[in-house]
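Encode chain A's predicted structure.
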Amino acid sequence: MNEYERIGTGYARNRRADRRLTAAIAAALDGNRNVLNVGAGAGSYEPSGLAAVAVEPAATMIAQRPRGSAPCVRARAEALPFGDQTFDAGLAVLTLHHWSDWQAGLGELARVVCRKVVLFTWDPDSEGFWLRDYLPEMLAKDRRRFPKLDDLRTVLGDVRVQRVPIPHDCTDGFLGAYWRRPDAYLDPSIRHSISSLAREEFAAGIARLAADLESGAWARRHGHVLGAAELDIGYCLVIANVGRRGSLD
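Encoded structure for chain A:
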């Protein structure tokens, strides 16, 4: 069963597209006429002004797509049901780590586009943020799940990497979104919409965080982040030219 058939029920509520990330992704896609959004989920970050087609394997996620969303094909990244160079651009937002074979999936994405591939992902070589102190096992798993930037280059060739600091009030509740709102990680409904945290195996680490927030230990160790408006915790856009007509502008 696709993981999101189990954990995806609250995504439309907890994983709302953040306007600043939306702007960064839209800028990366600028100059293209149409886009294939792979691992499209509940419809976040599908660019306005471009003809878009979505690909998503989980029925639970497809059911949450709002009226007026791009047409959605139920399929897997590793076997895209489109001909070569059908689309100008391809988009994949925080999804590579869920693909059964990310190399095959990226190869497929590069096959069906003729200009540019844009990925929003996390750099597993980054330090992350303070949550690592409470959930080191989770961080270790994520480092294995997310492809390294150098590995992406082996599939996509030359890429431009644009670091994306996460705003303190990010509305898209992925793992790093709550770096300045530590209490949010105590909310089971929020954790259930974060694939890395949707497992009970991390309950002990969450309990330690709750205890440190109550005692003031978290504030003593990590309170300096409360004065930051945004934080670079490893998220980035990876932009690849995959066709003769494209450019990494």
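The two ends are 40 Å apart (CA to CA).
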